[in-house]
Task: structure prediction
Amino acid sequence: MRLKDKVAVVTGGGSGFGAGIAQRYAAEGAAVLVNDVNDDNGEGVVKSLREAGGKAAYVHADVSKDADTRSMLEAALKEFGRVDIVVNNAGVSHRNQPVLDVSEAEFDRVFNINVKAMYWSTQHFVPQFRKQGGGTFVNIASTAGVRPRPGLVWYNGSKGALIVISKTLAVELAPDRIRVNCINPVAGETPLLATFMGQDTPEIREKFIATIPLGRFSQPLDIANAALFLASDDAGFITGVCLEVDGGRCV
Result:
């Protein structure tokens, strides 16, 4: 039980990588607060975690909003009494398309959820971590932030920002015993896959997979295993790292 007696908040935990991380954390002994804006998905994940013997609760919150992020902290404290790990996983993308075709509304949505959410997470959870004597952030960025694909300019930029933010926070918050790391997944079998590719066809899948040396998309369990390591005491001397879980895509 690598996370025994730990409490984790997982944003965007109702599907994809977030659901995989929530499941892996619960299996390793953590109490998990699952956040999402899709109540059916989020509550479904919590139900499955409880049925498997885990401790879990759900909170509906928009991670791009101040009050909603505060409500996540309050829910975690009410349900479990503390917070040890925050996984900033919730993310969106505009559809793969020429840069001039992306609307301002799409741009704002991408940066609000992928970047501004990190601002609010820092504002609310850092004071709690300081009060407890430490804590851990695991941020889900993307290979798009280090090896960008065309057609995803603003998504790529948002993930590049998250990578730099994570590294800078790691340095600034280290004296508080707060570790900050991130994970760079390659495109994965999640609800966002079709958005990344522009459209989901066998031909386009083959084209994307051809850029991944290990020959497949990432799976939620791949990302969950990395997130488990970075949140655990095994990574107690690791901060400021962006771990590529990408089948060799960024080599």
